[in-house]
From TrEMBL:
<dbReference type="InterPro" id="IPR001789">
    <property type="entry name" value="Sig_transdc_resp-reg_receiver"/>
</dbReference>
<feature type="domain" description="Response regulatory">
    <location>
        <begin position="1"/>
        <end position="104"/>
    </location>
</feature>
<feature type="modified residue" description="4-aspartylphosphate">
    <location>
        <position position="41"/>
    </location>
</feature>
<dbReference type="InterPro" id="IPR011006">
    <property type="entry name" value="CheY-like_superfamily"/>
</dbReference>
<keyword id="KW-0597">Phosphoprotein</keyword>
<dbReference type="Pfam" id="PF00072">
    <property type="entry name" value="Response_reg"/>
</dbReference>
<dbReference type="GO" id="GO:0000160">
    <property type="term" value="P:phosphorelay signal transduction system"/>
</dbReference>
<protein>
    <recommendedName>
        <fullName>Response regulatory domain-containing protein</fullName>
    </recommendedName>
</protein>
Length: 114
């Protein structure tokens, strides 16, 4: 799933998204700006996605929710790597938004879009 498609799906739900093109840009943005959640496509980035998530946690935001977009083969690894949630190729913005809401606030974990 492309960055533009995910962005379009997320923005249709009323949430705002900032897309970055590489791990270095992500680290710079996340260490300088406030974000409620991070979503990383680890299927596209391979181990770079895992390394980026770890770097964000270590350097910038140890408690920031990080959601992985992955594939079936990676899901078990991702769940043990400390991601707040793992989505396997989401089909629509509602699925993505529900995962974001659940990850961002335990108090809002029951809040979903339909």
């Amino acid at each position: 799933m492309t960055r533009l498609l995910v962005g379009s799906l997320i923005e249709r739900t009323g949430l705002q998204m900032v897309a970055v093109g590489c791990a270095e840009e992500a680290l710079l943005r996340f260490c300088r700006e406030h974000f409620d959640c991070v979503m990383i496509d680890v299927a596209m980035d391979g181990t770079a996605g895992l390394a980026t998530a770890r770097a964000i946690r270590d350097r910038c935001a140890p408690v920031l929710p990080i959601i992985a977009l992955g594939t079936g083969e990676l899901n078990r690894v991702l769940q043990h790597a400390g991601f707040s949630a793992v989505l396997e190729t989401p089909r629509d913005g509602t699925q993505i938004a529900n995962a974001l809401y659940a990850a961002m606030s335990p108090a809002r974990a029951g809040a979903t879009l339909h």
